[in-house]
Amino acid sequence: VQLKQHIRMRTLSALPQMNPKQRQNILFFLYDHELIRSDGPSDSINLSGADFSFLKFSDHRCYLVNLSLRYVFAEQIEFHECNLEYADFTGSQLAGAKFFRCRMGSTRFI
Fold it and tell me: pTM to 2 decimals?
């Protein structure tokens, strides 16, 4: 748990200094290592308050089933043809977010 708390703090302090592509890479890294997945361990990293605004997801890596981005800022984020089934955006600020031809079965927003 201490390691995950350390990762959380480092991530939250680094994100504001990164450009959108770097923030997207961080998101993929955390997801690929099952640190921000709703089907992962119960002690997944809490990224509440993290800013993922203006990111665009559309490449072949847009398979984000069970993605957990609860209580984050993600204004004008875009997902194109992504698989977001079972994703959890509960409490997140998604003003202007766009979801184009995405698979979103059982995705949570509230």
Answer: 0.91
